[in-house]
Amino acid sequence: EACWWEEQEPELELELALVLVLVLVLVLVLVLVLVLVLVLVLVLVLVLGLGLGDGGAHCGLICDASFPTTMLAYWARDRVRGPRLPLPDVVRMLTSDTARVAGLHDRGRIAPGYKADINIIDHAGLKLHRPQAVYDLPAGGRRIVQRADGYVATILSKAVTYRDGVATGALPGQVVRGPQPGPA
Predict the structure, then answer these.
(1) Which are the contacts of 137, defined by CB distance < 8 A and separation ≥ 6?
(2) Taking the model in full, what pTM does it have?
């Protein structure tokens, strides 16, 4: 018994072949565009600084605040498949590179005239916990948090604001609006 397309005219076979080729080309183009977009995103993340987050704008959906800890613990210390990133490079990406991209020219380095925001980290003890939902926003709003061990102290403007992951109550910070000039 003949297939249905064998009973049709040769022009129909040609049209079907052209449609199949067109569909395959379209799928190939879509795959290439997707690969290019993913490569572009990866390049932008690497070039623009790995410490940028959304500042909590999507805190009920994701927790990208753990990204710096992931960079330090996984990419610079624990990675086994492929090369690790050198720790000094990761620290630079999370500090001065990110500050530069954000226009905060008075931050990101420990040097005279710069804002001295410092994390003291026990790199060997750095560990992320599982993300969890907490309902502590106004009106019972949800946010996702991901706690970490290994942060010995956070110092902002000469005041210790966190010690061993626990807030000290010191709040010396201010809202930063727009680019900041570098030290004179």
Answers:
(1) 59, 143
(2) 0.67
